[in-house]
Amino acid sequence: MSSTRTAADPSRRSPPGDGAREWLESLDGYEALAVLPDGQEWRTSGFDRLGR
């Protein structure tokens, strides 16, 4: 499932604020890149394997 479809699917839960990274890491088959309001970013552990 694409990130666009996941974000648009109302049956999906959105990740909790401060626990988002841990929550996303717990999901099989999902990787994420997050950009914070201050411009910093973080990625789940397998994100870089996806290529660019």
Features:
single chain, 52 residues, alpha+beta, two-stranded antiparallel sheet, 12% strand, flat
Description:
This protein has 52 residues and is an alpha+beta fold. The protein has a domain of 34 residues. It is built from 2 helices and 2 strands. It has a two-stranded antiparallel ribbon with strand order 1-2. The mean pLDDT is 76.
Task: Describe the structure in brief.
This protein has about 50 residues and is α+β, with helices and mostly antiparallel strands. About 25% of the residues lie in helices and about 10% in strands. The mean pLDDT is about 75.
In helices, the fraction of residues equals 10-25%
Strand order of the largest sheet: 1-2
Number of helices: 2
Radius of gyration: 11 Å
Spans of at least 5 consecutive residues with low confidence: none
SSE pattern:
HHEE
The averaged pLDDT comes out at 76
Total DSSP E strands: 2
Q: End-to-end span in angstroms?
A: 17 Å
So what's the overall shape?
flat
Based on secondary structure, the structural category is alpha+beta
Strand content: 5-15%
Question: In this structure, how is the largest beta sheet organized?
Answer: 2 strands, antiparallel
Region (Disordered): 1-22
